[in-house]
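TA notes. Do not distribute before section.
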Amino acid sequence: MKKGEAYVLGADFGSDSVRVVAVDVADGSVAGSHVSYYPRWKTGAYCDPKRNQFRQHPLDYVESFTEAVQSALSQNPAVASRVRGISMDTTGSTPSLCDADGKPLALDKRFSDNPDAMFVLWKDHTAVGEADEINALSKSWGGPDYRKFSGGTYSSEWFWSKLLHIVRHNPSITAHAAGFIEHCDWLPALLTGTEAFDKIKRSRCAAGHKLMWHPSWNGYPSSEFLTLLDPFLAIVRESLGTETYTADIPAGALTQEWAKKLGLPVGIPVCVGAYDAHIGAVGGKVAKGVMVKSIGTSTCDIIIGDVPSKGEQEQAVDGIVGQVTGSVIPGYIGYEGGQSAFGDYYAWLRDVIMWPLKHLDIVEEQQIEKIEKKVLPMLENAAQAIEPTESSPVAIDWINGRRSPYADQMLKGALTGLTLGTDAPAVMRMLLESTAFGARAILECFENSGVRVEKVVAIGGVARKSVIGMQILADITGRAIHVTDNDLAPSIGGAVFASVAAGIYKDVEEAQEALCSGTERVHEPDLERKAVYDTLYERYLQIGAFEEKQRRG
């Protein structure tokens, strides 16, 4: 295929915004790109950080996606008529209560301002108690332990925990709901006009990693198990159907209404959705032995492995976020780990430092925004001059709970070893080191269970921006960190799937070779520093063990 002949769109729905990229399928070059920020989310609407409540209105997604597509296409007017397919990824698990047509309840005027009728963002931790309840029942009920392929622990960040929380705390709204739908399932259904539950093609990625779907027990947890938690969960189970689909499969065709709204050809394929880290890993050229770390507000660590031969059983890896055949690349098991806070930890420090300026009314708002953008780069620059020693202070990275190894969202962050000489740059370095210690623990969890990691690729905003952060990551893990040459990996990954769904490439691997990004820089580990960090890592593990003991009493 010649350059300029055909394009696909990749849409990446992140925590704060959606980015849409138009990609030339001949060589992966970008013909247009635009980021649109969610307007309601930007104001903090429907969120309460002190309660760990983070909700997003579906109109934020619709309005921002429309703007991003139109703006990306306007950069090159010849592109729109040559678009051959669309793929999209979202954060997850980010589900919403919906009506019998799969429409989020917040789109009903009666519930337009009700947070429980909106999408429950991945980082919402209001369902910690319900996650504990699911874990306890899984151990005791006498049937299959449905957490087996979810790392052995079910998280408050995931589908059933969030649904159970809303049922427990707002039963009046569940009376108006017919189901619970993932963000990555709803968007393709919306664009293709799919208005019946039994027609929605559910994401294999979402179902396997967050809904405990697995072929060994014929799909989702049984109605019997879910009814023991609450009968409404069993009703939702029935609405999900039995089949799940990989992201290279079309969910349907773009409707005339949406084609007109977006300025695209009618009937082009819209791919089944998936999660951002998994699609991003494809854009980062994930492969056997290649772990792609998506590093932003949080992290997701993705790697693939072979499916067992016929007659062999799949080995469950304890402590990770989950493992699902086809969740990343069809025909391979996709393994996921991650941290609940990475860039969010640094942002927390920035917000602490900025608090006086924001509340003393001595600086204009525009000036505050300018200062805020400079705080973290200044802290990182100063932190770079600090050499680690075996007596350096050590922080724990669980400020937003722990995703892996072994999910526990009730765990807390910690700063230890502080003195009167510990200034802001020293705290910044502590946080950079703590997130790298957490990353090392995940790598060790994978390898201790036989999942070999030969290469680490870093994608995402923090990976691109934080040179010192990636060097510390290399020094602490003792591994070279390969940083991609742009921050578009999720959108490029989406383009890979869209091009396969459109029939342009035969499979994901072939499309990866044609479209994926290269490497901008490689951070080689400093082995002298690693020797120091080995000692500090032992302290990190000891302090973490103490924190866990305190949590469990």
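Switch to the second chain here.
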Amino acid sequence: MNSLTTQTQADIFSYRKYWAHRFGIAPVLPMSKEEMDELGWNSCDVILVTGDAYIDHPSFGMALIGRLLEAQGFRVGIISQPDWTNVRDFRKLGRPNLFFGVTGGNMDSMVNRYTSDKKIRSNDAYTPDGAAGKRPDRAVNVYSHRCREAYNNIPIIIGGIEASLRRIAHYDYWSDKVRKSVLLDSKADLLVYGNAERQVVEIAHRLANGEAITDLIGIRGTAHFVKQIPEDWFVKDSTDIDKPGLVTPPQNPYQEEPACDQSENTIAPNENEKVVRLNRILLKKNRAQTVIRLPAYEAVKDDPIVYAHASRVMHGETNPGNARALIQLHGSREVWINPPPIPLTTKEMDGIFDLPYSRVPHKEYGKANVPAFEMIQHSVNIMRGCFGGCTFCSITEHEGRIIQSRSEDSIIREIEAIRDTSPNFTGHISDLGGPTANMYRLACKDKEIESACRLPSCVYPTICPNLNTDHAPLIKLYRRARALPGIKKIFIASGLRYDLAVESPEYVKELVTHHVGGYLKIAPEHTEQGPLSKMMKPGMGTYDRFKQMFDNYSKEAGKEQYLIPYFIAAHPGTTDTDMLNLAIWLKRNSFRADQVQAFLPSPMAIATAMYHSSKNTLKKVSRDAEDITIPKSVKQRRLHKALLRYHDPKNWPLIREALKNMGRSDLIGNGKHHLIPSFQPKGTVELPEKAYPFKTKHTGFERKKPESNNRILKNKSK
């Protein structure tokens, strides 16, 4: 197992092409034997299995990975949304020569199917005509098992966001328990996490060169099994980094024997101190060969405090510049998680997005509408990653904190391709963005500082003085893009970090004057400091500064434009009083939420560890640390959502009861200063006490009428 701290790696396009490149470029990657025959293929080198419809567009992970492997010379086939109830669909392209690549799709299959209240959604945006039920729960596990059944001796490599966020033992909201690493549950051979271009290209070439899947250890951005820790590696207990507090009753959280028998310890106390110091010196000196032992699955599954401790340690090892390998015991098997991949260079990003995508859905779908494609077909991804560190968000855990940006020329080429090839293009680009709208080319001012940094956010509690917040490259890109012939309007639809935007008034003016279509979405998420501090989000003072800029520049431009703020209900750390104060703020500012979002504890997120442990995991976790408020009960979560929609008469009985219990009957009445009226209109009734009382086959939750999880606000006062 080689050193894992190298900060530069070979360009992903520098590999010698595999011999099959002589077949040329496929118009689209084949999804049937007939299409393979048309291309002259007798087999696929790699078969990618996905829970999404196949859209040959760089916004869809399987298309991007497929086209990248094709550029390396491999023949790649796609099995899209297979019937998982039998093995037939998994054999339709034959036996792959190298491996199966399995993903649940662009979304986690559980998030895709269930709302934050565990109700089944009525549609799936990544399926033709939005049809629901085209993928199984925990799709990565199910697809992997079927691949194994189809061809038992073919390597199975899992990836995508569903696998990425389950690479270690993780809390699973839908079953309300800690589950094993998905590597065990899926019975896969190898897991790739994050944006996996580097890993997948290296894996494909090494397998093609005759290496066995079991030889592929030490690749950044992967997780795999190890039988034993190599002799030249040092093991550092996670408790040396972060103390989880005393365990009661006493137990060994690592399921291991002590290093020595303390009852027969003949080393003097001073000698012990010397040994400890020497060990620390050795660990520091041999950092590249150090692996951190996380508490075993058997320890974290039954102990929320130890789980929170493991989560804190794992999140401290996410910077590619200083991250160490992690190891976690699951029964008799050791899961080894290598450090994150080295971020792609701008040249590599350009190469990926310049690949020959057809940019349309596969012809198999005919005239069916794929909602996700309709939304992104005229949008352009300009960067990836996010250094915001919001605790409820999975972007950082998946894409990392270091921003990877495309060149301006590459972005312009894509806009021109949309203009020249999209059959229904009307001159409007729907978005220039990514995980955020305005982190393009933003980075730490010093690479050495960046490599050593362990802070979870570059912008909380305040913007780091080492962060470059210059928006000039983004302003230049906007101006060049909208000057292109045939481009009538370019909208910015990605989430805006307004705390960064206020550092550049010129950017705010550019955005407001040219790139807002009447409404601009931003996400303060809450008004109260309690929940905001658990989210790692700025206070409302920053929102007010941005709103003033927004209003002033809109007025200068002679435009009537409005902000649409998003808020989250039932986030860890949120009390009923916090939600009431947010509702009062909404009423005072004449905002009416049409549809709202409640906190969903996604696997591996920092806020999920809070939800599971009832502790603030942004601080050192101990058993005697103060518990934070966790809105878990159905009734309380329903109340928090109801307060966001204080204007809906159906919510008034629930809010009325809560206000009386809170001693805030002064907010009940028929005046403008009241939150809700004292009367109840005919035909409106309180929501049922039970939100989901019947069990489904896959998860054990009850199915009720589907509920949208979109977050849309309408300003009724305008």
